Amino acid sequence: RRSGFAGRAERMFGLMDGFLKNDPWSLQKDVMHHVEYTVARSRFSFDDFEAYLALSHTIRDRLIERWHDTQVYFKRKDPKRLYFLSLEFLMGRSLSNSTVNLGIKDQCADALNQLGFEFEQLVEQEGDAALGNGGLARLSACQMDSLATLDFPAWGYGLRYQFGLFRQVILDGFQHEQPDYWLNFGNPWEIERIHVSYAVKFYGAVEEELLNGVKRKVWIPGETVEAVAYDNPIPGYGTRNTINLRLWAAKPSGEGDMESYNTGDYINAVVNRQRAETISSVLYPDDRSYQGKELRLKQQYFFVTASTQDIIRRYKDSHSNFDDFSNKVALQLNDTHPSLAIIEVMRILIDEENIEWNRAWSIVCDSFSFTTHTVSPEGLEKIPADLLGSLLPRHLEIIYEINFLFMEELKKKLGLNYSQLSQMSIVEEGAVKNIRMANLSIVGCHAVNGVSRVHLELLKKRVFKDFCELWPQKFQYKTNGATQRRWMVVSNPNLCGLISKWLGTEAWIRDVDLLIGLKEFASNTDLQHEWRMVKRVNKMRLAEYIEAISGVKVSVDAMFDVQIKRIHEYKRQLLNLFGIIHRYDCIKNMEKSGKTKVVPRVCIIGGKAAPGYEIAKKIIKLCHAVAETINNDPDVGDLLKLVFIPDYNVSVAELVIPGSDLSQHLSTAGHEASGTGSMKFLMNGCLLLATSDGSTIEIIEEIGNDNMFVFGAKVDEVPALREMKSSLKVPLQFARVVRMVRDGYFGHKDYFESLCKTVENGGDFYLLGNDFMSYLEAQAAADKTFVDQEKWTRMSILSSAGSSRFSSDRTIQEYAEKTWNIEPCKCPF
Ligand code: GP0
């Protein structure tokens, strides 16, 4: 066993000797070794999938080596660590990303080539790790990449769902959900830690016990299961640091075996115990809606207690008391989903570590910070008190106690303003008593972050107004970001090669601010030419994919216009569809001569609807119905095509984003907390057509209004518009397209009726009618610009050049300095 590397040269040298080598020959030998001994195939006959597995194990070995060195180093240095708790991580594929971050992609490609395999093809063998729903979950994944790359001593914690986000299958234009069997073919990227496991208790009752003359609360649980750790190494780019994403899986507990087996019904006893595994079996597919389901609460607590037990165990390994806890441990809550951790740490400190309440509470508050991702009060998680009390009786007691003390404090500060007190209370009184997880998180954390500047403003003005007035310093924002490693280097290598060539360095991959250097070449005709060639190649790749999945042939000369994200009314995919119908209607009613002036478009829409979200599912069906009509209309031909990309996920995004010219971000102003898709398009030189909402507002400031197509009502205008809605006149063009749908132009008249209703008769909550003309103008401006290829390309280059602020590296740096108070800890090899 290695122990300490006091930095002595000879010792390091000895260690270096032991490192796995990364030249193509050594990689090849390792791949063949894994073909034969891990995959157990003959080296004379193995297919792409088996080659993918063998290569993955080859990479995995290198990850483990770095992981190990990093963890040993962290342990020795004992820096303050960040623990990032999130119920969702949308990691996507790992192979390509790992080889890029390890800096061995070219060597791997060479090695495989000589064995008769194509690296790019092996990459396609891997399925996505889709342990999350959308923006929030992908943000966690991007932030893990930045934490590793910036050498922060951080760990992620999450749940190892056996079934990730459902697979979307489209039958006759309707969405159907199928289970995501992502683990069925094995997962080379995880390390099972059968010895790292913790007991997780549920139900039962709380009793009082007298211990050495002191009264103590003891929780006698009714059910116990086991949480087992699976570690997923996260390599940084350009550093040896490799951090950990530890995911928990539920297993039956070994405790109390005798009891349950003694009943004599052995078979049933085994089968019943096996049900423990259901806790971590499936990801809830509803983006931002909470139903107070017991299984969901079980998942949350299961994940929270395993993680906090692990964190406290690690802390106690090198500290004899809790004096230093908040100087050594930062706990970050990704939304309210893991907020029971506040209560769990409190419980451990007072019930198990015998720490006095006030001291425990200040340790908790100093350690925890919280990020909220929503703007709508309805999006805030609430848990019925009855449910919480039956599953976690001791935790409910602690919540009541925290709330009691908080209310007392408030009364002192604010007097007896009952309406305000009841607004701020952690406990919502009413027919059903609820626990407000956001209020709990605000009270129990030292920092609350929004995800864009305007998001913080909305928190202050609306969502958490009272809390912001009470604790103004607590409320901050860190504008989201995306990692340029995955969203540029992995997914758009041609563009990256070009950028590095013109910048004369690859350093921007770590130091993203260097991208601004492209600005001075934005009008350079050589760069412009090469830039367009790269785009064209990416569009060809996308066109092939589109043909393969939909049979629709599209021309790469057309503008590729893309909207990919979860389907939500507020994201207004319906506005996009209405715009497409309008465009179609115009083409249909045109003279032959007019048609020559139309800028050909390929409209691409992709995204999943939550399984129970009827309106979102109707939007998907409408997209298919409209596509059916347009794509088969000989009057239209190549002037307009509409394609729905099924089963949108991270790897589909990696293909689509580099191949798009224009991307749409249409949320009604004031509804998108941040938005992160836009950032990925921006980096890749796709122009944005967007409302002034969330982080887009900051993108506009960064690259300028004239480098994108902005439209629609502004955040401040929306409330007043809503008030006047019923008296506003709907534009004729809007009424006409809605009528086409309503009258059955695209079939399914009855089915679409309720969809039409959402925008008719003053019901138009998301203001599609109000923004429609402005939207069409922005679209017309995009058409006009597209014809001017020089101008378009310059805007495209300026988009990439101006994207550095939207790197998750910047976000993480800000969190590290202002919220977590952590410093880099770089493994010295
Ligand atoms: C927000 F509340 N987001 C939620 C949620 O439950 N799920 C989710 O994905 C998103 C926001 O809508 C966002 O504006 C934001 O950028 C992202 O979280 C990360 O902060 C767009 O996806």
Automatic annotation (TrEMBL):
Cofactor: pyridoxal 5'-phosphate
Stated role: Allosteric enzyme that catalyzes the rate-limiting step in glycogen catabolism, the phosphorolytic cleavage of glycogen to produce glucose-1-phosphate, and plays a central role in maintaining cellular and organismal glucose homeostasis.
GO annotation, cellular component aspect: cytoplasm
Secretion signal, residue range per the UniProt entry: none
GO molecular function: glycogen phosphorylase activity; pyridoxal phosphate binding
First and last residues shown, out of full length: 189 to 1017 of 1017
Catalytic activity: [(1->4)-alpha-D-glucosyl](n) + phosphate = [(1->4)-alpha-D-glucosyl](n-1) + alpha-D-glucose 1-phosphate
Enzyme class: transferase
Superkingdom as given in the UniProt entry: Eukaryota
Record-given protein name: Alpha-1,4 glucan phosphorylase
Keywords: Allosteric enzyme, Carbohydrate metabolism, Glycosyltransferase, Pyridoxal phosphate, Transferase
E.C. numbers: 2.4.1.1
Annotated family: Belongs to the glycogen phosphorylase family.
GO biological process, one term: glycogen catabolic process
